[in-house]
TrEMBL record:
PANTHER family: GDP-MANNOSE MANNOSYL HYDROLASE, MUTT_NUDIX FAMILY PROTEIN. It comes from Photobacterium ganghwense. This is Nudix hydrolase domain-containing protein. SUPFAM superfamilies: Nudix. GO terms for molecular function: hydrolase activity. Keywords: Hydrolase.
Length: 143
């Protein structure tokens, strides 16, 4: 199974950008990210996924952890963003979106993470711990 990259995108207001998924009758949250393409580096995949899912052009970011998620290795990166609106880019999510399959980008305070049905749940728990002391001005990306 090909590896995945996921993004912890944070802003100066101590918020994280998540994707609220509403699919059929399910309502849940995910981190922006996706599969690493054949021959693509993890860093290039993180940049591509940021652009496809948030329209952000990733300039600088740092790897923070990885975990095994349903048999697939998932690599997480953190980056700070300016306080700018996010919107779906021209990736597969935009093409798949319809009334029964929605992708909504939402900024949420760090404190709310532990209360969400956020997948993968192990990553949610790690992110909650990591974001307690995160510096929100150390890494920048721009829209």
């Amino acid at each position: 199974m090909k590896p995945r990259v996921s993004l912890l995108l944070i802003n100066p207001k101590r918020e994280i950008l998540l994707i609220h998924r509403i699919k059929e009758e399910r309502d849940y949250w995910v981190f922006p990210g996706g599969g690493v393409e054949q021959g693509e580096s993890l860093l290039t995949a993180a940049q591509r996924e940021a652009l496809e899912e948030t329209s952000f052009v990733l300039q600088q970011f740092s790897p923070v952890f990885s975990l095994l998620n349903m048999g697939r290795r998932e690599h997480f990166f953190v980056a700070n963003v300016d306080n700018i609106p996010a919107r779906l880019g021209n990736g597969p999510e935009l093409e798949k979106q319809n009334i029964r399959n929605r992708y909504e980008l939402v900024w949420l305070p760090f404190e709310q993470l532990s209360t969400l049905e956020l997948y993968p749940m192990d990553a949610r728990d790690i992110a909650v711990t990591l974001l307690v002391d995160v510096e929100t001005d150390s890494v920048q990306i721009h829209g």
